Amino acid sequence: MGETERLKRCINDLIGVLALPAIWTGSDPTHVLSTLLEALRGMLGLDLVYARMNGPPGEAPIEVARVAGADTFTVQAHEIGVMLDERLGADRRNWPPVTRNVIDGTEVSIVTMPLGLQGEIGALMAGSGRADFPSETERLVLGVAANQAAIGLREARLLSDQKRLATELDQRVARRTAELRASEHNLQLIINTIPALAWSARLDGSAEFFNQHYLDYVGLSAEQARDWDWATAVHPDDRDGLFATWQAIMASGNPGEGEARLRRSDGEYRWFLFRANPFRDENGHIVKWYGINTDIEALRQSELNLRQMTETIPEMLWSATSDGAIDYCNARLLDYTGCSAEAVMGSGWTKLLHPDDVEQTARVWISCVTTGAPYRVEVRVFHHADGTYRWCVTNARPLLDQQGRILKWHGTLVDMHDWKEAQEALRNTQAELAHMTRVMAMGELTAAIAHEINQPLSGIITNASTSLRMLAGDPPNVDGALETARRTIRDANRASDVITRLRGLYSKKEAAAESVDLNEATREVIALSLGVVQKDGVIPRTELAVDLPRVTGDRVQLQQVVLNLVRNALDAMSAVEGRPRELLIRTGRDEGDRVLLTVQDTGVGFQRESADRLFDPFYTTKTSGMGIGLSVSRSIIESHHGRLWAALNDGPGATFSFSIPCEPVGARVESLVSSA
Amino acid sequence: MIATRSLVSVVDDDPSVRESLPDLLHELGFAARAFVSAEEFLTSDCVERTGCLILDIAMPGGMSGPDLQHELMLRRRQIPIIFITANGDPTIRPRLLAQGAAACLFKPFSDTALLEAINAALGTS
């Protein structure tokens, strides 16, 4: 072969090698290496050609080989690589450029070229049994080929990396998409199956979204409910109110709620609570509104039932907040007073009361609201129907929470005017009855006394008459007259005995000896005579000592005495005009372990000189009465080892007092009881 | 003489009346007997002979005056009766007179009132 010829071939080979990258575009590294090795083998007439491309760390390299006369190379390629590593050393950077080796008994020249400046891409190896291998031009061709391969492989690797990344990205996108789809499906399921009507709205308040449950409930499609069209399902009467509330909530920017009736798909309206919450972005600006509507029909119904009950119950009811402001009055109460609910609310209720009762009532109410004590007041309330004030009793109790704090007050108002009048009448009747009984008892007593006295009187008169007739006879029957005169004296003594016995009657010891609280006994007497006292226009006052010792005696007898003194006081004041009729009953300790009770009046009093005779039987200054009341009273007090006396006041009227020993201790009780 | 004197019987539980009244009746010219109770009078032999009966109204423990009056009516024994009583209830008098009593005297009564009543009862004057 001539030099020219060889150069021509070399240039052709170089052009062929330089053209390779054009056919490599878009190829994978194996294809790049294969075409390279095919081209080199053909050009240079090589017996053996081998190339490898390093894989990513930890992965096997891609190895390709061509051997002259062999059809398949892939299996051998790795073996060739292993053999090269064994013979030339593991570090490819130290491989000598040309070595001579004996392979399978044939001497072969082997040329190695790094792919990439440091062989970082891989290595190219060419072997030939020709003695002149490699020639200068062959070396050049191999060098250019290695260079081209390095470029091609770099591109191919870049490409395959891109492909791999793209695939991986595609897979991840597909996976994420599937996940998202699943989670979105799940969310959709939740939104559409929660037992509530859920929705979202735009900033202008128009509807953006309804869950399926909502749409099913009102029987509208999403299209039919969009924007403001959902309002067709709201009860016409509630629409304006709900819109107003909705605007107010949006204006406030805070969570809010409103109530309205929604039409169900079957046409029935039911009450719903509409609740909305704002959704804000990271800057705090409201982006959307989310809401839920809850069916409160049952709640409304029970509220309605309760309201119906409070409005139909035949009682006057009211309630107040924990701080005492009235917040509800039922219609019956408003009708009674003729006031509007607005007028009564808060502290307006005082307008319903008689002006004279307002201050006292308000004071009690404030005290109860502060302490939580049950509230009960008798008060005159304006009655609209006849324009009068009528006596009512109002009662209220606090509703407490578990910590005992007052939540509310619930109260009643009851008209007790008629009852109070009936009570008054009853009290008067009782007083009259008591008086009647007293009069009748007095009548019976009078009859008994008369009978007892008349018997001996009868004897006196009969005997005296007989005696006179005997003396007037002719001859006079002196013996008979003496006898009958003696009988006269005897009967007179008998009459005197009767009087003595009568006096003894009141000091007779039928009296029980019990422990008596004189204060309590006195209070009973006052309660009993209160009707009469008030009717007479008398102002009764009591000053009962707190630490009054008890006394031993007959409670009923002592009460008779007190009653008698009170009645005398009332009688003494019945004619008094132009000055207050005052009755003062006092108890207290007296000296010497005694208890004192005084009844002081502002009546007509008594003649100073007759003070001693007041207590005599049958002495009286009254036109009615026997004059034995004070006599009996003194007997009773004396039987209690006590003393009863009267004194004129410095001012008008008189004071009657008694003093009895207070309850003895220990053995003294025994002795008193046994002597009694 | 004695046979012509009318017998006036006194029934009263009060001993002073039983003691004093017969003496006065003797002085007034009547025969007199006294009995402590209605039962004693009814069992005596004086029921048929009595011309006038002075009778206490209330006698605890036995028949009352009106009871005796009723009993005598049942026996068809009509004796004029003068009731006497220490109970000063004036309403009792018209009731007793309406029921056939000859008179009703409240103790203490005078000898003349008694004599008038007896005479009226016996139909003499």
Integer count of domains of chain A: 5
The count of DSSP E runs of length 2 or more, i.e. the number of strands of chain B, is 5
CATH fold type of chain B: Rossmann fold
What gross morphology of chain A would you assign? rod-shaped
CATH class of the largest domain in chain A: Alpha Beta
The shape of chain B is: globular
Question: Reading side by side through the largest sheet of chain A, how are the strands ordered?
Answer: 2-1-5-4-3
Q: What would CATH call the homologous superfamily of the largest domain in chain A?
A: GAF domain
Q: At the first level of CATH, what is the class of chain B?
A: Alpha Beta
DSSP strand count of chain A: 22
Instruction: Name the beta content range of chain A.
Output: 15-25%
Radius of gyration of chain B: 13 Å
Instruction: State the CATH architecture of chain B.
Output: 3-Layer(aba) Sandwich
CATH topology of the largest domain in chain A: Beta-Lactamase
Write the CATH architecture name of the largest domain in chain A.
2-Layer Sandwich
The low-confidence runs of chain B, each spanning 5 or more residues with pLDDT under 50, are: none
Oligomer: heterodimer
Can you write the helix and strand succession of chain B as a string? EHEHEHEHEH
- Strand line-up across the major sheet of chain B: 2-1-3-4-5
**Helix count of chain A?**
17
Describe the structure in brief.
The complex is a heterodimer of chains A (676) and B (125). Chain A has helices at 3-24, 29-44, 74-88, 136-193, 212-218, 222-225, 236-252, 297-312, 331-337, 341-344, 355-371, 417-472, 478-506, 518-535, 555-573, 629-639, 667-675, and strands spanning 48-53, 62-67, 98-103, 106-115, 122-128, 197-201, 207-210, 256-263, 269-280, 286-295, 316-321, 326-329, 375-383, 388-400, 406-415, 514-516, 539-543, 551-553, 582-590, 594-600, 643-648, 654-661.
